[in-house]
Design goal:
Length: 713
C-alpha cells in the first residue's frame, strides 16, 4: 500500500538515513497488500484520466491512495425531518417523492434546477443554482433523500442540497440517509464523486485489507481490524466507529514512525564506526582555562554529555536546546577543541551567510588565541578556492559556512565533528548526506526554540538531547514595550542617552529598500532619515543582506568593537549576532514579524549584565498581529513564546515540522493526537526492547516499513 511508501519517505526526512540493511525482509506468511490498491485510480470504472489528474491535486494517484483518503469530518444525515416541519435556516434530511423537475433560465449566465417534492406532510422545493442539468436526474414519481439547508426561493426551499436517488436498496445509501463522509476537495471534484469512487473501490476489493498491526497491540487498544476500520472510516455505522477507525490508522502511523526513529537510533548506538575523540587534550584544557566565566549548570551538563558521546566510538547525534542567549555556542567550543585535540576538523554550519560570518568572528576571537585556525566559507567568500584548498589539506581546524557550502562542495582532510546551528530554522541535517560523502562525523544540533515535547520526540526523536535551562547569571529579562507614534521622539532621546552611556542600539526594519508594493519601513531610507535627523551626530551603521560580504564584515566588526552607537539592519541580525554591549533593540513594523522571529530578534539584546529593552513599533492590522505583540510584552520566556506561537500558527509553520517531512502524516495530527503519540512511543520502545531486530513474524510488517529508510538518531 502506498501509505507504507509515504511512511518511509517521511521517516527518512527526519535526521538522516542510516541504512538498516541488517533488518530481515517480511517474514514468510506476512500479509502482502492487495495488488488492486497499487493500481492507478483511473483503473476504476467511471474514473477517467481527466479526473485522475484532478485527484493528483489531492495526492491521490493509486487506488490505495484513494481508499486511504480519509474524510475531514462527517455529517449525520440519518434523522429524517417532515417537510412541513422545515424552517428557514434548518439543516435537515428529508425523504420525499419527486412531483416535478424543471430547469429554469434566470438570466444570461444564471440558471437553476427546481425540483418539487412531497411527503405525507406537504410539498416543498429543492433548488440548485447553476446546475440546471440536475433537473434531468429526477423523474416524477421516483423517491429521493435530500440533505441541505433551508433558504428562501419563492417561499422556502432546500438550497443546493445533497441528494440520493432511492432505488429501494437501503444499504446503497452513500450521500444521505446515513452518516456521510465529508472530504477535503479540489476544483472539479465533488463530495459525491469521491463518495462514489471510494465506495466502488472498496466494493471492488476482492480480498480484505490484511491486518498490519501486531495482534497484541490491536487488542491492547481494542482497535477494529484493518479491513473493517477502512470501511468504517468512510461509511461509518456510528460516529464512534469512525473515530475508532481513524485512531487505529493514526496510531499505526505513529507507531511506524516511532519504530523507525527508535530503530535507527538503536542502530546508530550499535555502530562502532564513529570517531573516538580525545577529550582531555591541551586545546580543551586551554579553552577551559581561558573562559572569562563559569559555565552554568546546564552548560556543564551539556559539555559533559557531548564529551562522553565524543569519547565513545558510537556516532553522536545530540541536540543542544537552550533559549536565545543561554550560551550554546560556548558549549560547542568545547566540542571543537576536543575534536582538534585528536587532529579532527569541525564544520560549523549556519542557516545564513551573515550568521556564518558572525560565528566566524566569535570563534576566531575565542579559539585563535589557543592556536586553532578558523576558516569562513560562504557564497561570497572572495578566495573560496584557496580556503577550500586549506580545508582539504587539513590546515584549518574549523570551517564555518552555510549548510550548502559545507555539505556539497567541500572536501575535508579529517572531518570529525559537525555542528549545526539551526536556531529556530529546523532544517534537520541529513546525516545520510554526509555518510554518502564518506564522512561519519559526530553531530551536534543547536536549537533555540523550546519545542513542545510531542514535537520533540518526533522531529528530534532519534537524537539525544541536552537542555540548557538557565541563563548565565546577572541577566535580567529584556523589558519589552510598544511605542505609539506620539512616543517616537522620546524613543530617539532614549537611544541618544544610552549611546552617551556607551550602550548600543539595533534598529530593525522589515525591508531593505522602499517598495511600491508594500507600505513598510525600509532600512536604507530609515537609516538615511534618522541619521540626518533625530539621531544626527551618533555613530550609525547599516547592515542588510544585499551588501557585499566584506562591507557586512566591516560593519559587524565595527559594531562589535563598540565603534557604532546604532546599527540599522534587517532581520539579518535575527540569528546569532552576539554583542553584549547592545542593550536596546527597536523593531519597526513589528506586527509584520512572526512570534519566534520577534523573540529571536529580542534575543540580540539582554546578553550582558545591563538592563536591556525591546521597543515594538508599528500598527497591527490583524488580530494575530495584535496577539503577537501582546505575547511579546507579556513574557520573555522562549517557552511561553513557543507555546503561543504553536497556538497561533500550528505546528507546521513554527516548528519545522514541514521541513522535517512530518506535515504529511496521513492520519495522525501531532497536536491533536498527543495521547496516541505517547502510546505509540511507549509501544515502539517495548517492541524494540523485546525484538530489537524486528524479526518476530508479528513485527514483519513494521520491519518492512523501516527497512532501507531508517532515520538517524
Ligand atoms: P546562544 O548561542 O545560546 O544564543 P551564546 O553562546 O551566543 O548564546 O552566548 C550568549 C552570550 O553569553 C555570549 O556573549 C557568551 O559569551 C555569554 N555567555 C555564555 N555562557 C556564559 C556564562 N556561563 N556566563 C556568562 N556569560 C556567558
Ligand atoms: Mg548562538
Amino acid at each position: 500500500m502506498s501509505g507504507e511508501t509515504k511512511a518511509q519517505d517521511r521517516t527518512d526526512g527526519i535526521g538522516a538515513g542510516v541504512a538498516g540493511e541488517s533488518l530481515p525482509g517480511p517474514a514468510a506468511g506476512a500479509a502482502p497488500m492487495p495488488k488492486q490498491l497499487l493500481a492507478p485510480v483511473d483503473s476504476l470504472s467511471g474514473l477517467g484520466p481527466k479526473r485522475a489528474a484532478l485527484l493528483a491535486n489531492l495526492g491521490i494517484e493509486t487506488v490505495g491512495d484513494l481508499v486511504f483518503y480519509f474524510p475531514r469530518g462527517y455529517e449525520d444525515r440519518r434523522k429524517l425531518s417532515r417537510l412541513a416541519d422545515l424552517r428557514e435556516g434548518d439543516t435537515a434530511t428529508v425523504e420525499a417523492e419527486i412531483v416535478r423537475a424543471r430547469a429554469i433560465r434566470l438570466r444570461r449566465r444564471l440558471s437553476l434546477a427546481e425540483v418539487t417534492i412531497k411527503d405525507d406532510s406537504g410539498q416543498f422545493k429543492a433548488i440548485w443554482f447553476g446546475r440546471d442539468y440536475l433537473a434531468r436526474a429526477f423523474s416524477a414519481g421516483s423517491r429521493a433523500l435530500f440533505s441541505g439547508t433551508v433558504g428562501k426561493w419563492n417561499g422556502l426551499a432546500l438550497r443546493n442540497p445533497d441528494y440520493e436517488l432511492l432505488s429501494g436498496d437501503e444499504a446503497d445509501r452513500l450521500h444521505t440517509g446515513r452518516i456521510v463522509p465529508v472530504y477535503r476537495l479540489t476544483d472539479g471534484v465533488t463530495q459525491r464523486m469521491l463518495r462514489n469512487w471510494i465506495r466502488s473501490a472498496l466494493d471492488a476489493l476482492d480480498e480484505p485489507l490484511p491486518e498490519t498491526l501486531p495482534p497484541a497491540l490491536a487488542a491492547r487498544y481494542d482497535f477494529p481490524p484493518a479491513d473493517g476500520a477502512l470501511r468504517q472510516a468512510h461509511f461509518p455505522d456510528e460516529v464512534d466507529a469512525a473515530r475508532a477507525a481513524r485512531n487505529r490508522f493514526a496510531y499505526e502511523e505513529l507507531l511506524r514512525l516511532q519504530v523507525g526513529i527508535l530503530h535507527a537510533r538503536a542502530a546508530r548506538l550499535h555502530e562502532e564506526t564513529g570517531t573516538r575523540h580525545v577529550v582531555d587534550g591541551p586545546f580543551l584544557g586551554a579553552l577551559r582555562a581561558s573562559l572569562p566565566f563559569h559555565l552554568t549548570p546546564g552548560q556543564d551538563r551539556a559539555v559533559a554529555d557531548i564529551l562522553e558521546d565524543m569519547a565513545s566510538p558510537r556516532p553522536m547525534v545530540r541536540l543542544i536546546q537552550g533559549d536565545v542567549g543561554s550560551g550554546k555556542t560556548v558549549v560547542g567550543l568545547h566540542a571543537i577543541a576536543a575534536a582538534a585535540d585528536g587532529g579532527y576538523q569541525t564544520a560549523l554550519m549556519a542557516p545564513t551567510e551573515i550568521l556564518a560570518e558572525q560565528h566566524g568572528l566569535s570563534l576566531r576571537e575565542m579559539l585563535a588565541p589557543l592556536g586553532l585556525d578558523i576558516e569562513v566559507l560562504t557564497g561570497s567568500t572572495p578566495d573560496a578556492p584557496a580556503v577550500r584548498e586549506r580545508v582539504a589539506h587539513g590546515e584549518a581546524h574549523v570551517v564555518v559556512g552555510t549548510h550548502a557550502l559545507i555539505q556539497e562542495s567541500t572536501s575535508f582532510h579529517r572531518l570529525g565533528l559537525a555542528i549545526i546551528d539551526e536556531q529556530h530554522r529546523f532544517g534537520v541535517l541529513q546525516r545520510g548526506a554526509l555518510i554518502e560523502k564518506g564522512l561519519n562525523p559526530d553531530l551536534i544540533h543547536m536549537t533555540a526554540t523550546p519545542i513542545p515535547r510531542t514535537l520533540a520526540i518526533t522531529v528530534y526523536g532519534g537524537m539525544d538531547i541536552s537542555v540548557i535551562e538557565e541563563m548565565p547569571p546577572g541577566r535580567s529579562p529584556v523589558v519589552t514595550s510598544r511605542i505609539t507614534p506620539a512616543k517616537v521622539p522620546g524613543l530617539h532621546d532614549t537611544i541618544r542617552r544610552r549611546a552617551a552611556a556607551g550602550q548600543q542600539t539595533f534598529v530593525v526594519c522589515p525591508l531593505v529598500e522602499d517598495s511600491a508594493k508594500v507600505d513598510l519601513t525600509s532600512v536604507t531610507s530609515h537609516y538615511r532619515e534618522l541619521s540626518a535627523g533625530p539621531l544626527a551626530g551618533l555613530r550609525v551603521g547599516l547592515l542588510h543582506g544585499r551588501m557585499a560580504s566584506d562591507e557586512k564584515d566591516a560593519v559587524m566588526h565595527a559594531f562589535k568593537r563598540g565603534e557604532l552607537d546604532v546599527l540599522f539592519c534587517t532581520t539579518v541580525i535575527e540569528v546569532g549576532i552576539d554583542c553584549p554591549n547592545a542593550t536596546t533593540i527597536v523593531i519597526e513594523d513589528a506586527p509584520q514579524f512572526g512570534l519566534t522571529q520577534l523573540h529571536q530578534l529580542r534575543g540580540r539584546v539582554g546578553r550582558g549584565t545591563e538592563q536591556s529593552y525591546c521597543y515594538l513599533l508599528g500598527k497591527h492590522k490583524t488580530p494575530e498581529g495584535k496577539r503577537r505583540l501582546e505575547v511579546m510584552c507579556a513574557t520573555s520566556s522562549g517557552f511561553d513564546v513557543a507555546e503561543a506561537d504553536l497556538e497561533l500558527r500550528g505546528p507546521g509553520e513554527s516548528y519545522g515540522v514541514r521541513q522535517a517531512g512530518l506535515s504529511d502524516l496521513r492520519f495522525a495530527d501531532l497536536i491533536r493526537d498527543v495521547r496516541l503519540l505517547d502510546a505509540a512511543r511507549r509501544d515502539a520502545l517495548e517492541i524494540l526492547d523485546t525484538d530489537p531486530g524486528l524479526t518476530a513474524p508479528e513485527h514483519a510488517l513494521l520491519a518492512a516499513g523501516v527497512r532501507g529508510a531508517a532515520p538517524s538518531g
